Automatic annotation (TrEMBL), chains A, B:
Keyword entries, A-Z: Transferase
Pfam families linked to this entry: CoA_transf_3
Superkingdom assignment: Bacteria
GO molecular function, one term: CoA-transferase activity
Annotated protein name in UniProt: CoA transferase
Amino acid sequence: MAKALDGVKVIELCHAYNGPFCGMLLADHGAEVLKIEPPNGDQLRTWGPFDKKSGESGFFAFLNRNKKGITLNLKNEQAREMFYELVKEADVVIENYRAGVAKRLKVDYETLSKINPRLIYGSSSGFGQTGPWSNRPCYDIVAQSMGGLVNITGFPEGIPTKVGASIADNVTGTFLCVGILLALYSREKTGKGQHVDVAMLDTIFSLLENSIVKYTVGGYIPDRQGNIDPSIAPFDIFKAKDGYVAIGVGNDNLFEIFCKTIGHEELLENPKFKTNDLRCQNYIGDLQDTIRDWVGKRNKQDIDDLFGKVGIPCGVVLNMKEAIEHPQIKARDMMVEVDHPTMGKTSFQGVTVKLSETPGAVESPSPLLGQHTQEIFNLSDEEFKELSEKGFF
Amino acid sequence: MAKALDGVKVIELCHAYNGPFCGMLLADHGAEVLKIEPPNGDQLRTWGPFDKKSGESGFFAFLNRNKKGITLNLKNEQAREMFYELVKEADVVIENYRAGVAKRLKVDYETLSKINPRLIYGSSSGFGQTGPWSNRPCYDIVAQSMGGLVNITGFPEGIPTKVGASIADNVTGTFLCVGILLALYSREKTGKGQHVDVAMLDTIFSLLENSIVKYTVGGYIPDRQGNIDPSIAPFDIFKAKDGYVAIGVGNDNLFEIFCKTIGHEELLENPKFKTNDLRCQNYIGDLQDTIRDWVGKRNKQDIDDLFGKVGIPCGVVLNMKEAIEHPQIKARDMMVEVDHPTMGKTSFQGVTVKLSETPGAVESPSPLLGQHTQEIFNLSDEEFKELSEKGFF
């Protein structure tokens, strides 16, 4: 079946998480993604969890499915010439070096766009290609902190809390993908490539939703709210006998259904809870306590089933095993399996964007280190051996 | 200056946060986005913060900049015919009703693609258009919980914690944008539109990075880790005299610089801290305590300046005001200002994806309710009055 990016050639000069996540999205939708690793490999190969039998990184296998892989020593001038040859035929190069490093390696946009003016060049970095912090090193935790997200995550009485997944990495990779696709569409009209520049700090800042306007329009600095939403009540996570459930009751109609369902119609008579606004003001205390008490005496799945029937937004706080095995995750093909040459059958997250006519798919496993080097450069065994000894790969 | 999506016509049948975020990304990059609200308006208009003078929602103003807006009562058959006329000229329709609602309103993909086979139709919902949970209601907190993210956010000794911003909403909106752009690019080759289907549950699940393979490959169920990364140490958030700082020391070389910078070279002699692996195993205790003590005696900005100089990844945990005023946020134009007809000068987040040749921009404010209805349908004052009285708008 045709895919949206059939025929689009991408070179991925990326390591770790953020750039490769973009490469994965492009590859899932049909782009031919060629991952170029330094001779000692992407550092992600050394990050766990590891397959016990083969020693391969499960993290690497997940992020680099559907890609081909070669090694190339870009510090070697002649090896770099071989890279330039690949660039002539490419539509897209993506990189996630720290700002400045691509230039030092002579693989920056300026250099490559002279070789191929149709080239789209995507850069993903901690702070972006411009500005006073451009050259500072960054990790996900730094971008989450400086972007303002850590300060609003967690409980008012607790400390600032980072998100449990590296969303500065993967969401920035997603924005890089948005940029590449914008540039590809634009090139259909103009015939010209361009430079796409995304940053982890910008990305986190862009996700803060109305916390920014709370300051600029509302005039106050928002603080941590725990699991509560200040503008909806009840809207919280509650402890059941055997775990936790999230419950959101967004309007008066739902509140009536909710109170009847939990057998606490007296709450409907209480003037403190007449409207959503009043419930928000008076949530802590009787209302929260009543729900805590009711939830605390029941099993999470029973609560979920009950609210599911009456249409109250509700969901169990699932751990990884439970999420993987959830019928909706299964029905949506959000777990996929590939056959890896050394790991065997391996499973991980599937394709998030569902397209009716050109659906993406996971069809091939991540490459072994340097697996496609000889093939991509069309080298005889002797040539390959010779250039390997010269330190090209 | 030309933008990437110049000439692309988008109709936004969206409310609240998730769909409008996608519409915003498309509009920022040049698409003509026409937002269709029901006669009583997008519910987001009732969500704060509110401008004191005009009563307008700052949240609405942020998410709907660069769009035109009309009201239309899609439940009225004749009004719906006017909508179908707009669809004939549109490239994209996006909607974020609960699954099933678009069909009931007769504005679903099947209906509209018969009117315009080139139409790209994007659906964003809590659980997606397919699967056993498809029709269940969802909020951000439900998707974060069921997607597995809440269970891994927060501290091991604490309770599951939701992310302080509604990332199930805005990241799903970003994936919807990816899907629309894939479909637009594909249509350049095939001439045909298609249906794009994204879900908040799928999105959150896709962001869990290696937590999924920790179970499928590593064989264990990961738990909350607080602010620590189990595979890097030191990597944590520390309390300074006047706030918090995030510090990440990712390898042996950085660890040497770090110890020398904080004047604790004795840590380098300790065999427990020789390698990153050993530091991870032995982090809690002497190593964490030493850093806590050192950071606790200093001001956050001094620490940030010091580590910035020596190249240790570090960043202050910023609140909204501090993030807005950070020189890098300013240098990257991540805050922009528009002149709103009733709010006056209003500022919020800018354009995240930076394109060198076709840069996006924020050029016009969010529409007042029904501001462009008469113009879009090219109605005389009399016609407009008559149809308004008939309940079309």
